[in-house]
Design brief:
The complex is a heterodimer of chains A (about 120) and B (about 110). Chain A is mainly β and about 120 residues long. Chain A has strands at about 5, 10-15, 20-25, 30-35, 45-50, 55, 65-70, 75-80, 85-95, 105-110, 110-115. In chain A, strands 2, 4, 5, 6, 9, 10 and 11 form a 7-stranded mixed sheet that branches. Chain A has a 4-stranded antiparallel sheet with strand order 1-3-8-7, with no helix packed on it. Helix content of chain B is about 0%, strand content about 50%. Chain B contains no helices and 11 strands. In chain B, the strands form 2 sheets. In chain B, strands 2, 4, 5, 9, 10 and 11 form a 6-stranded mixed sheet that branches. In chain B, strands 1-3-8-7-6 form a 5-stranded antiparallel sheet, with no helix packed on it. The chains are: A mainly beta (about 120), B mainly beta (about 110).
């Protein structure tokens, strides 16, 4: 049973460039959430995708966008990269049926370490 | 903005000691409370998800309690072992709500 997989594991980009990070959820999960984890902070919520739509969004600028595909996998895109975007980006999947399961935990991938120079 | 606060920020204990951490959150509009363990070079791993006031959960030497009326949860580790060294994250939300994390408590167990 494959867990959450993220690619790539590491990435180095230059200021102003664009980046795409990818995530495949745990088998059977239908919801993907993206988090940014900077040094000394807890994971900061970017957005959540369910049924191929953005359902919730955190306090991140429009430079951060995403997509969910019919197979539930997801992409995070960041445009016009800033030095401050350097962080670990975590993808988490969960099962949120139409019943809105309260006790569904998040399952995390190992993250993508993005460095912007 | 939902504030989830954890204390202490970091903790060093001797092997065999018992310890506990606190997670504080606004008591209004409570949905669910999560605890995760995040070991170095690994991904965060779910320990518990609690939804009801008075909930108590246990997993081996680790247990957690929940008080939604006063807005806090405690995580207890009995007889700490070096393998318990990790950052413990508390988070609020779930389902269709976003899950908001605290900054974590970093535990170091000294052999």
């Amino acid at each position: 049973d494959a867990g959450v997989t993220q690619s790539p594991t590491h990435l180095i980009k230059t200021r102003g460039q664009q980046v795409t990070l990818r995530c495949s959820p745990k088998s059977g999960h239908d919801t993907v959430s993206w988090y940014q984890q900077a040094l000394g902070q807890g994971p900061q919520f970017i957005f959540q995708y369910y049924e191929e739509e953005e359902r919730q969004r955190g306090n991140f600028p429009d430079r951060f966008s995403g997509h969910q595909f019919p197979n539930y996998s997801s992409e995070l895109n960041v445009n016009a990269l800033l030095l401050g975007d350097s962080a670990l980006y975590l993808c988490a999947s969960s099962l949120v049926s139409a019943l809105g399961q309260k006790n569904s935990p998040l399952h995390f991938g190992n993250g993508t370490r993005l460095t912007v120079t | 903005i939902l504030n989830v606060e954890q204390s202490p920020q970091s903790l060093h204990v001797q092997e065999g000691d018992s310890t506990n951490f606190t997670c504080s959150f606004p008591s209004s509009n409570f949905y669910a409370l999560h605890w995760y363990r995040w070991e170095t070079a690994k991904s965060p791993e779910a320990l518990f998800v609690m939804t009801l006031n008075g909930d108590e959960k246990k997993k081996g030497r680790i247990s957690a309690t929940l008080n939604t009326k006063e807005g806090y949860s405690y995580l207890y580790i009995k007889g700490s072992q070096p393998e318990d060294s990790a950052t413990y994250l508390c988070a609020l939300g779930g389902g269709y709500q976003k899950v908001t994390f605290g900054t974590g408590t970093k535990l170091q167990v000294i052999p």
